[in-house]
Design brief:
The chain has 335 residues and is of the alpha/beta class. The chain folds into 2 domains: 237 residues, 3-Layer(aba) Sandwich (Rossmann fold); 73 residues, no CATH class. Helix 6 runs parallel beside helix 7.
């Protein structure tokens, strides 16, 4: 498989100073503004932050799936196994998607074609990447295997998406994404449209498949609980920038210094051990990406802001790979 290259000295993915914009009639939207992160083999990184932080645009940039008329990657590098995806032409990217890097999109209701059976949608991915020229019988057997892998009876492969529940649709989307055993899987809010019970089942399934196939993963989510269960590293995004980055254990250690935005995210989580503790939402809204504030992008909402924050880019505090883009980092329970 194209995704099974093994080079222990090169990260699976190395994103360097990525910048992506959307050109609209009303101006330029600065969606991703110079972010950097790496993913090693079998590692999961969580991209977290509010709606509008740039998480999905980051994923679409990696796969070169930004809207052709409006979206552009305008800076940086996206190195898959050391090879810059931004230098690939359309045909090369078509062969990379699915075989090397695959994506689970947000809404399984719209990710599937309602006019094509579930089995044929899985089969399509296998046929595109059938470099070995395997016969149709072998591909059909692989479809059955994938359906069984995600907990769906192969006998249902001739059924259409409307005949499946939301959770089963998501399982089919996962089967399509993993059909060619990609080395990197991008999961964009994979449980958003599902009820709580099905969410848990899907997350367990993804973790089991990740371990079985040795897949690295980018988990895009609003849910810090999901991050705590599934991720090795965390990148906290705000206004198209990574404001904090490090090992999940460090990010979730409330005794460590954190970016004020990260502190705010944790304050907004219900505390099941202390029901008397009131939630403390972050005041204000994400800034307009077409008119970003100067200095630290979070300063209009920050309770620890100074005049310097309003003017200058934040200083970087780096402690053993735990990076905080703020000169006034706080303890997790501070303020």
């Amino acid at each position: 498989m194209a995704g099974s290259v093994n080079d222990e000295h090169t990260p699976v993915l190395d994103v360097r100073n990525l910048e992506s914009v959307y050109h609209t009639d009303d101006g330029t939207v600065y969606a991703v503004n110079g972010i950097s992160f790496t993913i090693e083999e079998k590692e999961t990184i969580g991209l977290v932050g509010e709606t509008g932080a740039g998480k999905t645009t980051t994923a679409l940039s990696i796969l070169r799936l930004l809207p052709e008329r409006t979206g552009r990657v305008v800076g940086g590098q996206i190195l898959y196994r050391g090879d810059d995806l931004l230098k690939k032409d359309a045909d090369e990217m078509r062969m990379i998607r699915g075989a090397c890097v695959s994506m689970i999109f947000q809404d399984p209701m719209t990710a599937l074609n309602p006019t094509i059976s579930a089995g044929d949608q899985i089969l399509e991915s296998l046929e595109i990447h059938n470099a070995d020229g395997r016969p149709r019988e072998a591909l059909d057997a692989r479809v059955d295997e994938l359906l069984s892998l995600v907990g769906i009876s192969p006998g249902r492969k001739h059924e259409y998406p409307h005949q499946f529940s939301g959770g089963m649709k998501q399982r089919i989307v996962i089967a399509i994404a993993l059909a060619c055993e990609p080395l990197l899987l991008i999961a964009d809010e994979p449980t958003t449209a599902l009820d709580v019970t099905i969410q848990a089942q899907v997350l367990v399934l993804m973790e089991e498949l990740k371990e079985k196939l040795g897949t690295s993963m980018i988990m895009i989510t609003h849910d810090l609980g999901v991050v705590a269960k599934t991720c090795d590293k965390v990148a906290v995004m705000y206004a198209g920038e990574i404001v904090e980055y490090g090992d999940a254990a460090v990010i979730f250690d409330q005794k460590r210094p954190h970016h004020p935005y990260t502190v705010g995210l944790f304050r907004a989580i219900p505390n099941m051990r202390d029901s008397s503790r009131r939630l403390r939402p972050i005041e204000g809204l994400m800034p307009d990406p077409a008119n970003l504030p100067s200095g630290c992008k979070f300063h209009p909402r920050c309770w620890n802001v100074t005049d310097e924050c309003r003017v200058n880019r934040p200083a970087v505090r780096d402690t053993d790979g735990h990076r905080i883009f703020c000169g006034r980092a706080l303890d997790g329970d501070a303020g």
